[in-house]
Amino acid sequence: MTTIGLIRHGSTAWNKEGRIQGHTDNPLDEEGLRQAAAIAERLSGEQWDYIYSSDLLRAVQTAEVISKRLGIPIAGQVPGIREMNGGLIEGTTEDERVQRWGSGWKSMDMGLESDESGQQRGSRAIEEIAARHPGKRILIVSHGAILRSSLRKLVPGLDVGELLKNTSITHIVKDDSGWTCALYNCVSHMEAER
């Protein structure tokens, strides 16, 4: 049985401003660093064997905080789990999109990566990491949209309607019958902070 802990990165200034990040390489903000420390503290009471990260800075910084606390080096930065491409809307807020393209902007071709592309790319990367370390417990630090798309493919029928919170953890487990989700979008470590 292989267990994967999927973690969304800590918060960034663009998260707070409601800006689409996509492939834009933003750093964590002060709160994001605190969130990373909180999830790292939570994970320090558990047994994990490997840590992987998306190659985008906000995920790498989150993974580095976890890596330092757990004493486990980051095994690799994986482009396959980077956030979905936001095309022309990267860096914009909803108000800015409506101003620029009108209220019907969602029906226009904005060059966004499709959910199907995200499902294929993300689930393949997660499957490859799992195949590299059968029977192990692996942390993967990534991004909200690509993780939800990947979960749609890996665990069909799982309700992923709830947006993933910053530094939330989702556990998926692979056995002979495939993947199951044991925990979704858990941020109990942040509630302990308050």
Q: How are the SSEs ordered, and which strands pair?
A:
Blueprint: E1 2-8, H1 13-17, H2 30-43, E2 50-53, H3 57-70, E3 74-77, H4 94-101, H5 115-132, E4 137-142, H6 144-154, E5 169-175, E6 178-186, H7 188-193
Parallel strand pairs: 1-4, 2-3, 2-4
Antiparallel strand pairs: 1-5, 5-6
Helix pairs in contact: 2-3, 5-6
Textual characterization of the structure:
With 194 residues, the chain is α/β, with parallel strands linked by helices. It has one domain (2-193): Phosphoglycerate mutase-like (Rossmann fold, 3-Layer(aba) Sandwich), CATH 3.40.50. It contains 7 helices and 6 strands; from the N terminus they run E-H-H-E-H-E-H-H-E-H-E-E-H. A 6-stranded mixed β-sheet has the order 3-2-4-1-5-6. Helix 3 links the parallel strand 2 (50-53) and strand 3. Helix 2 runs parallel beside helix 3 and helix 5 crosses helix 6 (144-154). The protein is globular. This is Phosphoglycerate kinase. Pfam families: His_Phos_1. Keywords: Kinase, Transferase. GO terms for molecular function: kinase activity; phosphatase activity.
CATH architecture: 3-Layer(aba) Sandwich
How many runs of DSSP E, i.e. beta strands?
6
Mean pLDDT: 95
Could you name the ranges where pLDDT drops below 50 across 5 or more consecutive residues? Answer: none
> What is the helix/strand order?
EHHEHEHHEHEEH
CATH class: Alpha Beta
Binding site for substrate: 8-15, 58
Organism: Paenibacillus graminis
Keywords: Kinase, Transferase
InterPro entries: His_Pase_superF_clade-1, His_PPase_superfam, PGM_Phosphatase
